[in-house]
Amino acid sequence: MLKSLHSTDIGPTALNDTRKFFPALQNNTAYLDSASTCQVPTTVIDAISTYLSTGHGNAQRGMYQFSENASNLHQLCREKVAEFINAPQGSDIIFTKSATESINLVAHSLRLGLRQSLTPEHSILITVMEHHANLLPWQRLCQQTGARLNILPINKNGVLDSSALETYLNDNCALFAITHISNVTGIVNDVKSLCKTGHQYKVPVLIDGAQAVGHRQVDVSQIDCDYYVFSGHKMYAATGIGVLYCKSLDNDPLEPLLLGGGIVNKVTLDSYKLKPTVEKFEAGSANMLGIVGLIGAIEFIDNIGWPALNAHERKVSGYLLNALRSIEGIKVLPNDAGSAVISFVHQQVHSHDVASILALENVAVRAGHHCAQPYLKAMGFKHCVRVSLGCYSSFADVDRLVVALGEVEVMFAGV
Ligand SMILES: Cc1ncc(COP(=O)(O)O)c(C=O)c1O
Q: Is the pTM of this model over 0.90?
């Protein structure tokens, strides 16, 4: 049995006071930007620190203890991630640097025409709700191959309008890529049902789970997606580590994005033979700090437990929504009840000005287009202020936001 470096029993009852596990939040910051990146708990920091101070090694390289230990942790992380998202086995998990890289890896493989040679007869299907990470790689793929990029629209409530779904799904549709949860509105897509429909037409489905993994129990076997992507830093790990889950890697014509050390069985000056295993997608030295941090983050979430996490976020989200709705001059964007993301616009003040004034009050939110310009445009906005929650978010953070929004009024009164 492989063992991780750190395991702290936090327990489900401690959630009201989760903030104490986050050293960065011991100052006065009301951190309301977890959709961008999460703060990191002590257990993750300690796991990384312990790893570094007990011997840093290059995974799958050396015969000595530091390297063997790194290899074990690397393998443990694959198994932990598989268990975390209920993938059948660790060998279904490819480590990347981010959700963005995971999507690009799939797009790269399609460009090479390994699953099917894309021509102007073919299409890729996405939705207007996508983060640019799940839009630009498909735009480029279509520009390069002449394939058509079909886009499912939204209705007036910002919700996916899938009435045209079946008109886009056919033998020529090479992939359907869709976000699990929107990073702008927090609206949750019924990815299980969308996968089922896609598969009726034999179209593989990729789910962008960047905003889901830190907020709900993801079950890729139940969703039955072909690919599921996410980043560690949106679930309390460090930046620089991402995941691509692939349903049937043995039969999937995925092609490595990077070539280099650690992925080959045999190399000559004019040829190479890739390993047949998942390692072939991970050229170069593994991001061991990312790996160790991801193990720690999974253990952190497991220790709290999804029921407690979900109940807490739902409670704070409801409080936030009520608070924002009660403030005059603020228009709340469409949202999903209980979601960890709620956005709004101030009717007189630009979102960047709002966020700057909030920052003066040590209230951290994000303002702008949130890398989802087409979605905002489709809802009739150019920018918005996004408030997003994590397990450490509290009513007090929301109260601080409300007070700081009062400052916006004061500063802009009469302008
Ligand atoms: C829905 C969604 N997809 C993809 C990404 C890209 O994540 P990363 O920057 O970690 O690759 C983000 C980042 O905010 C996101 O919110």
A: yes
